[in-house]
Amino acid sequence: MEQSDRDDTLAAENRDLRARLSEAEETLRAIRNGEVDALVVAGPGGDQVFTLRGADYAYRVLVEEMSEGALILTAQGVIFYANRRLAQMLKVPLQQVIGASFERWVTAVDQALFRALMNRASPQTHQRMELTLRADDGTGVPCYLSVSSLQLGEVVGSFCLVATDLTEQKRSEAIVAAEKLARLILDQTAEAIVVCDNDARIMRASEVAHTLCGENPLEQPFERVFPLQEANGAPFSLARFRNTGHRRRIETRLERQGAVFYLLVSVGPLVGSQGERLGSVVILTDITQRKAAEEQIEQLAFYDPLTRLPNRRLLRDRLHQAVATCTRTRRQGALLFIDLDDFKTLNDTLGHDIGDLLLQQVAQRLIDSVRMRDTVARLGGDEFVVMLEDLGTQPQEAAAQVQVVGAKVLTALTQPYELAGHHCHSTPSIGATLIGEYPVSVDELLKRADLAMYQAKAAGRNTLRFFDPEMQAALEARTALESELREALREGQFLLWYQAQVDSEGRLTGAEALVRWLHPRRGLVAPARFIPLAEETGLILPLGRWVLETACSQLARWAQRPQTAGLTLAVNVSAREFRHPGFVAQVEAVLEVSGADPHRLKLELTESLLLEDIADTIAKMTALKALGVGFSLDDFGTGYSSLSYLKRLPLDQLKIDQSFVRDVLTDPNDAAIARTIVALAHSLGLAVIAEGVETEGQRAFLLESGCRAFQGYLFGRPGPVEGLWQCC
Question: Where in this chain does the record put each PAC domain (predicted)?
Answer without folding.
Answer: 244-299
